Every structure is written in structure tokens, then in C-alpha cells.
Amino acid sequence: MKNKKLRGGLSFCAFLLCLVLLCSLTLPVGAESGERQKCYVGGTPFGVRYFTDGILVVGYCDVTSGGKARNPARDAGIKPGDAIVKIGNEAVEGVSDLAEEIGESGGRALTLTVRREGELFCVTLTPSACDGDGRYRTGLWVRDTGAGIGTVTYVLENGKDFGGLGHGICDSTSGCLVPIARGNVMGVTIGDVQKGAIGAPGELKGHFTAGKTGMLGANTVCGVFGVLTERPKDTAGLLPVGRREELREGEATCWCTLDESGPQEYRIRISDIHRTAHDNKCFTVTVTDRALLDKTGGIVQGMSGSPIVQNGRLVGAITHVLIGDPTTGYGIFIENMLENMPKAG
């Protein structure tokens, strides 16, 4: 009888221990001391000029050789989204390096080191002489630089480290995440808005201002991250971070810049929340603010990263627009962005 009581007591203690462990695993950072992370709310536009980590393959272009259409790159197993990092034993610095090696190959096979989804492998690529001009070609479309604009979502309390876009910089042709070696953050002035319509996404039109305003550090599926030389002008100021379980369907606001007047707050509605999502499409955003609808038609390119505030907390950012309905798009949990942000130092 004593043994039965003892076993029951141990089981109850084990249950309490498991409960304590479960709570400790699910508490957010800082929750045990009542602390909550705070960030400066963004809403200001920024530009990026970047260099890819290796030469990014963005597509194919067949070569007419010997009267037939050929594609040496496809035959070698190279795919859009791959990055060419070496020719032989030499690191490739840019597109000009590759073009020079191809032009001087005389049709001999080249050994290329390629990175695909983080894995390195070698391919043998044999250029073909083009019937039109006799030059050797590989059938590749490649790039090593790029530029674009987006919106700053938040700046950490140190006033320097920031996150923006809410999604990664992807190649417009292949749709693949661009591997960025280094990049500069540039100031941007928004000069015009191309209004969105069904089947035709709109766009914020702007130009880079002189000089860089920071450095780009990382490009991920949940946003781009870097360091600013100076914290942008406050919008909603320093707000606590809202957790995914705190986001509610219903009214919220977003901050974005559409002209020289700077960041402004607009009404939106949140719906279809997927609390287990860890990508950049976590909930649906619908623009309800008449002023924003009149000016942009809804969500337009360049608004990606526009911070979302609900109940006095920074809860996420706008990331995408629906092609068939420019008033509606997707948003990302702010937690997803913060979790993907590289650690300082």
C-alpha cells in the first residue's frame, strides 16, 4: 500500500515538473522578468545597392551553333537560381570575369564551381561558337549586382540595427532569393505613385539620394537586415513588440511613406491569421483607409516592410499584394523578422 502511494506521489511530482518545463519552453524571451522587447517603428523608404555572392544565374538564352539551337549551360546541369563562385580554381569576382573566360575558351571545357541551396558542386561547361558572330557562348543569363527600394519595418533600441521588407530580395526572373555578398543602404525620396489595379500591381517611384545611409548585412526569406548610420525619423516611436498569439483579427494600422510629407498612418484590417507560420505570409492584410486607396489603390511595390501596429504594439509588416485584388495582401509576424535577424556583433 505504501508503495502504491509512493508511486502516485512520484507521478504527480513528475507531472508538475513536466508542466514547469513546458511553461519555461513556451515563455518568450524576457517574459520571466516581465520585460518585453521594444523597437522603433519604421515606415520610411530605403534603397539598396548590392553585389551578389557569386554570379547569379537568372535564365537561359539558346545559342545557334552549327545551324542548331543549343544551350551548353542547361546541358551542363546549371539552373536558374544557381550561383557560379569559381572558374577552375579561381574565385569569380563578377560577370566580366566569366565573360572573359568564355570568350577566350576557344571551345574548351570549363570547370565551374556552383552553389545551389547552400551546397557546392562542380560542373563541366563547354561553350559553343555562335553562328552569327563566331563568339563562344554558354546560353546563360547572369547578373552580379542589383538595386531596389522598400520600407524600413523597425529599428532596434540601439538606433542602428534595422529590419525591412518583410521578405527577401528575390531575382525577378528566377524568383530565387538573391545571395548577397555586400550591399549599401541608400536614402530614397518618393516622387510618384503608380496606382495599383486588378492584374497590374502598382509601385512607389523614387530615386536614391546622394550618399549611403547604412550597410546591408543579410537577405532572408523574412526580410533584409543591416545597420543604419542614423535612426530614421520617428513615426509611432518606440513600441513594444506584439507576439503572434496577441494578434487579433480586426482593425490595425500601417505606416508608410507615399510622398515628401514622410511616414503616415493608415487603417487596415487583419484576417486569416496562421499562428504557426514561420515564413512571410502569416496573415491577410486588407487596406480600408480611403486616403490610401485613393492614392495607391491598396498595396503597391515599395510598401513591403510597412510596419503594422495593433493595440499599441508593433505586430508585423506588409509583405505582398494579391495580383487579383490590390486592396489585399499578406503580412508577416514581427517575431519572424526578429528571429531571422543576425545577432549583433
Describe the fold and architecture.
The protein is elongated and about 65 Å long. With 345 residues, it is α+β, with helices and mostly antiparallel strands. The relative contact order is 0.17. Strand 11 and strand 12 (161-164) form a beta hairpin. It has helices at 2-26, 72-76, 95-103, 290-296, 334-340; strands at 38-41, 45-60, 63-65, 68-70, 83-87, 90-91, 110-116, 119-125, 128-129, 136-137, 140-156, 161-164, 180-194, 203-220, 223-228, 238-240, 250-257, 263-271, 283-287, 307-310, 313-322, 325-333. The protein has a six-stranded antiparallel barrel. A six-stranded antiparallel barrel has the order 17-18-19-22-21-20. The protein folds into two domains: 35-50 and 145-340, Thrombin, subunit H; 62-138, Pdz3 Domain, CATH 2.30.42.10. It is built from five helices and 22 strands.
Task: Indicate the CATH topology of the largest domain.
Answer: Thrombin, subunit H
Beta-strand share of residues:
over 45%
Question: Can you identify the CATH class of the largest domain?
Answer: Mainly Beta
Number-wise, the strands total 22
- The arrangement of helices and strands along the chain is HEEEEHEEHEEEEEEEEEEEEEHEEEH
Structural class: alpha+beta
Gap between N and C termini, in Å?
A: 60 Å
> Radius of gyration, rounded?
25 Å
Average pLDDT rating: 88
Poorly predicted ranges (pLDDT <50, ≥5 residues)? 1-33
Largest sheet: 6 strands, antiparallel, barrel
CATH architecture heading of the largest domain = Beta Barrel
